[in-house]
């Protein structure tokens, strides 16, 4: 069968019933594709997007469920850990000096230094530094003594019943023949922020 292009000449939309079979077939295919495309765009594409969103939400909900299931399955363990953490926090809070104990801390540091064989040049409080849950109380310290005395001093400060940290060590040799050293450092103690609000 030979294709005759002349059969598509002079086709009128008012007289579709008289069109040749090949023209009717092409029109039917064009209309079917157009209807299918418009139907897909109007109805199915939104449904596919909703389905994709539902799949993504399902994955998120499954992960949330796994997490919550893990927590609920280990609830007793989590409660025990929470109690232990609260106890540890309470112990740490007791290690922070109260505002009425802070002046005694200077006495403790002085005692620790003198029993370690050091002579104090300077021991002075610096302005308080407020942090999120605690207040930092820095103390500038300058002492003179031997290297081993410095080690004993720092060790004894670490053994104090209250939390005291040491920072910014600077050691220099004094200008004498005894091998005396000069140590400058900053000790910091901390106070719980809520104590201020009381």
TrEMBL record:
<keyword id="KW-1133">Transmembrane helix</keyword>
<protein>
    <submittedName>
        <fullName>Type 4 fimbrial biogenesis protein PilO</fullName>
    </submittedName>
</protein>
<dbReference type="InterPro" id="IPR007445">
    <property type="entry name" value="PilO"/>
</dbReference>
<dbReference type="InterPro" id="IPR014717">
    <property type="entry name" value="Transl_elong_EF1B/ribsomal_bS6"/>
</dbReference>
<feature type="transmembrane region" description="Helical">
    <location>
        <begin position="21"/>
        <end position="43"/>
    </location>
</feature>
<keyword id="KW-0812">Transmembrane</keyword>
<keyword id="KW-0472">Membrane</keyword>
<dbReference type="Pfam" id="PF04350">
    <property type="entry name" value="PilO"/>
</dbReference>
């Amino acid at each position: 069968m030979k294709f005759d292009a002349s059969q598509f000449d002079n086709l009128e939309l008012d007289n579709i019933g008289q069109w040749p079979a090949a023209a009717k077939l092409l029109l039917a295919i064009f209309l079917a594709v157009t209807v299918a495309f418009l139907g897909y765009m109007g109805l199915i594409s939104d449904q596919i997007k909703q389905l994709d969103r539902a799949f993504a939400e399902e994955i998120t909900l499954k992960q949330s469920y796994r997490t919550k299931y893990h927590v609920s399955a280990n609830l007793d363990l989590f409660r025990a850990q929470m109690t232990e953490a609260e106890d540890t926090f309470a112990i740490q809070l007791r290690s922070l000096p109260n505002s009425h104990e802070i002046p005694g801390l200077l006495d403790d540091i002085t005692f620790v230094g003198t029993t370690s064989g050091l002579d104090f040049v300077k021991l002075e409080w610096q302005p308080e530094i407020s942090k999120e849950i605690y207040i930092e109380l820095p103390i500038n310290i300058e002492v003179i003594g031997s290297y081993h005395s410095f080690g004993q001093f720092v060790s004894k400060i670490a053994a104090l019943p209250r939390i005291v940290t040491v920072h910014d060590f600077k050691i220099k040799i004094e200008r004498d023949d005894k091998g005396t050293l000069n140590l400058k450092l900053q000790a910091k103690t901390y106070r719980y922020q809520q104590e201020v609000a009381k």
